[in-house]
Design goal:
- The protein has 211 residues and is an alpha/beta fold.
- The chain has a single domain, classed as 3-Layer(aba) Sandwich (Rossmann fold), CATH 3.40.50.10610.
- The protein contains 3 helices and 8 strands, in the order αββββαββββα.
- The chain has helices spanning 3-25, 91-107, 181-209, and strands at 32-34, 52-60, 69-75, 78-87, 112-116, 128-140, 145-158, 161-175.
- The strands form 2 sheets. It has a 5-stranded mixed sheet with strand order 5-2-6-7-8, with helices on one face.
- A hairpin with a 4-residue loop joins strand 6 and strand 7 (145-158).
- The radius of gyration is 25 Å and the shape is elongated.
Length: 211
């Protein structure tokens, strides 16, 4: 056997290993994208009605949540980000959109119009409120529950002046029915809807006192 053939034989195991590794690297699962909102959670015709305007936002989230990957809690002090299960858009905007939908659902009959804080409408409002929200914690433990902790204010706006009427810390949980990211996202949406319902109750109470 000559030297040339010997070199080829020695290179063959290395080339085989490289081929196998390239095959493994090329079979990564595709990313899956999730949203807490659906088509029914869009702004409907009710936002064009005359009424008292409520602006929701800004919604601030912790830096550990401000990323595309969905975050789960696996222990008291351990968080895991899912490489292939991601948000379809900004989590802050997801929360804002769902809160706007839920507040409109709860408050339209009370004469309110609810919009994201950056959206201005040509409405005949006689009084406006703003609801800024700071999320402290928002993640779930697979197979258990989602925890949403947030601090929010109700600010009354008269012309160019703002005055805080109250500040509330909400602690909300929602059960995760299955060990899947789809179930996790569904539970997160329910938690945001519960927060919206809590805010709606306080808005009605404070609006009555503010008349």
């Amino acid at each position: 056997m000559n030297l040339k053939h010997t070199k080829i034989i020695r290179l063959f195991p290395a080339l085989t290993l490289l081929f196998l590794l390239s095959g493994c690297l090329g079979t990564s699962p595709p990313a899956r994208f999730y949203t807490m909102t659906s088509g029914e959670h869009s702004l409907g015709s009710e936002v064009t009605m005359s009424g008292k305007l409520i602006q929701v936002g800004p919604v601030e989230i912790p830096s550990y949540l401000d990323r595309p990957q969905i975050i789960t809690r696996t222990g008291q002090n351990e968080l895991v980000h899912a490489e292939f299960d991601r948000w379809a858009g900004s989590l802050s905007e997801e929360i804002t959109g769902l809160l706007v939908y839920e507040l409109n659902r709860c408050l339209t009959a009370e004469g309110f119009v609810v919009v994201p804080w950056r959206l201005s409408l040509n409405t005949d409002q006689r009084l406006a409120y703003r609801i800024p929200i700071r999320v402290i914690r928002f993640e779930g433990t697979p197979g258990k529950d989602v925890v949403l902790s947030a601090i929010w204010d109700m600010v009354v706006k008269n012309e160019d002046n703002e005055k805080s009427l109250l500040a509330v810390r909400s602690a909300i949980s929602a059960d995760i029915t299955e060990k899947s990211y789809e179930s996790l996202v569904s539970a997160m949406a329910k938690a945001v809807e519960k927060l919206g319902s809590e805010i709606a109750v306080k808005v009605i109470e404070q609006d009555g006192l503010n008349k």
